[in-house]
Write a structure and sequence with these properties.
CATH superfamily of the largest domain: HUPs
Oligomer: single chain
CATH class of the largest domain: Alpha Beta
Distance between the termini: 36 Å
Helix content: 40-55%
Largest sheet: 5 strands, parallel
Number of helices: 18
Number of domains: 3
Shape: globular
Strand order of the largest sheet: 3-2-1-4-5
Strand content: 5-15%
CATH architecture of the largest domain: 3-Layer(aba) Sandwich
Mean pLDDT: 96
Radius of gyration: 21 Å
Bound molecules: flavin-adenine dinucleotide
Low-confidence stretches: none
CATH topology of the largest domain: Rossmann fold
Order of helices and strands: HHHHHHHHHHHHEEHEHEHEHHH
Length: 408
């Protein structure tokens, strides 16, 4: 059965409401079990909504803590903070993203002659003979979603059993997951490969897979040893870049894939005159994306644009809104020209294709007399500086972060 994710905030809120009763101890006890696409009530399936901020981390954590005690919802809240942590970690080390993207391009150039060519083709066709892996390839294509444990097993089998380059596996996930996210995806693949926590790998075993899929799979021939991959030393983390104060006065609001709840983001001193937006989803990979992923994301961006136009209006009329042909300087300049705008405001995008598009666009538009300014959520500004080291010191800060009133 295909679980269909509806690309709206309304659907995200409905999924949250349905899941809240499960988010306490039941989640902590059962979340590692993957009983297949027809039985997913032990996990929230909120990631497509959280990843695009159709619903925010703050809303999810608040709603769960309104129903459960801090102790019983601790595991679920920590999982939500994994997303925040990965984003912060990558934001402080953008070179890791650039290196990954460079490696993917170089590997794709070699793929017709590389020694792993046939193994890659068999993996992508779901033709490895490893029952679980072949099933997950199909599930990824039809659902655009895999359970977290299946993602870990899949990545481990890809790297250590099939001995394929981890970067191509990460690119496959990034293209095919509706929740495809630069930070969570790239850094989770690095974690499995033993690059993220140097030397510490994740080995998928037949016993663990059989146990947590409750006998749905009994894979044969899995690697019995996972030797960590190595890489050139990473640059030290940089301090979190300060976001300059917003220009005051009239501006247009630009909506993009990475934050689709602009009603809850503050633009102090800015008088928003109109709203537009576009998706950069196709820039996730040089390879084409499945329509499942493109359609979800583009429709989610449209939902974000129309809600912003309705809810930001300070009059009874909604603001004028439109979907642009792309997240690029030419499209934004045409829109700005039509509305006589010299300032565009938008949500800060974390490291990834949207950030790259915004930075490129801002540089080009500056030469054409248009300023692009961003606002970053307190949630990110307060949490990200603590993602300099591993998750465990970050985790210690969660209670303090939650106590900070303004975080949102
Ligand atoms: C190899 C690999 C690749 C991944 N790629 C992505 C990706 O591209 N996009 C993505 O959103 N997540 C990714 N994840 C993280 C995680 O698997 C998904 O966020 C989670 O499975 C989503 O399902 P859920 O909403 O039902 O999670 P739940 O278990 O219900 O968790 C609630 C929320 O917590 C967050 N969360 C839970 N586990 C993680 C985690 N390990 N890392 C980060 N956040 C987490 C998500 O926002 C999730 O919606 C990846 C994990 C692995 C191992």
């Amino acid at each position: 059965m295909i679980h269909s994710f509806s690309p709206t905030r309304e659907a995200g809120l409905a999924a949250l409401t349905t899941f809240i009763p499960e988010a306490g101890r039941r989640y902590a006890q059962s979340r590692n079990h993957d009983l297949g696409p027809d039985a997913r009530s032990n996990v929230s399936m909120l990631s497509p909504y959280l990843r695009h901020r159709l619903i925010t981390e703050r809303e999810v954590v608040d709603a769960v803590l309104a129903r459960h005690t801090v102790a019983s919802a601790e595991k679920f809240v920590q999982e939500v903070f994994w997303r925040t942590y990965w984003k912060g970690w990558l934001e402080l080390r953008p070179a890791v993203w650039r290196r990954y993207r460079h490696d993917v391009a170089a590997l794709l150039d070699q793929r017709d002659t590389a020694e792993w060519r046939d193994d890659l083709a068999a993996a992508l066709a779901g033709n490895t003979g490893i029952d679980c892996f072949d099933a997950w390839i199909a599930e990824l294509a039809t659902e655009g979603y895999l359970h977290n444990h299946a993602r870990m097993w899949f990545a481990s089998i890809w790297i250590f059993t099939l001995r394929l380059p981890w970067q191509l596996g990460a690119d496959l996930f990034y293209r095919q997951l509706i929740d495809g996210d630069a930070a969570s995806n790239t850094l989770s693949w690095r974690w499995v490969a033993g690059l993220q926590t140097p030397g510490k790998t994740y080995l998928a075993t037949a016993h663990n897979i059989a146990t947590y899929t409750e006998g749905r799979f009994s894979p044969h021939g899995l690697a019995t040893h996972a030797e960590a991959l190595s890489e050139e030393r990473l640059p030290d983390p940089a301090p979190l870049v300060e976001v300059p104060a917003l220009p005051q006065g009239r501006a247009g609001l630009l909506v993009h894939d990475d934050d689709l709840h602009l009603e809850s983001l503050h633009f102090p001193g800015v008088d928003i005159a109109c709203v537009s937006g576009a998706s950069a989803v196709a820039a996730r990979s040089v390879l084409p994306l499945p329509s499942l992923v493109e359609d979800f994301t583009r429709a989610a961006v449209s939902d974000g644009i129309s809600r912003a136009a309705q809810n930001l209006a300070n009059s009874s009329q909604p603001l004028a809104s439109e979907t642009l042909s792309g997240l690029n300087a030419d499209a934004v300049e045409r829109w700005a020209g039509a509305h006589n705008l010299t300032t565009i405001v938008t949500a800060h995008a974390p490291v990834g294709p949207v950030q790259e598009a915004l930075l490129g666009m801002a540089a080009q538009l500056a030469c054409r007399g248009i300023t692009v300014a961003t606002a970053r959520r307190d949630w990110d500004s307060l949490a990200w500086p603590h993602a300099r080291r591993g998750f465990f010191p970050f985790r210690e800060r969660i209670p303090k972060l939650l106590a900070q009133q303004q975080i949102g």
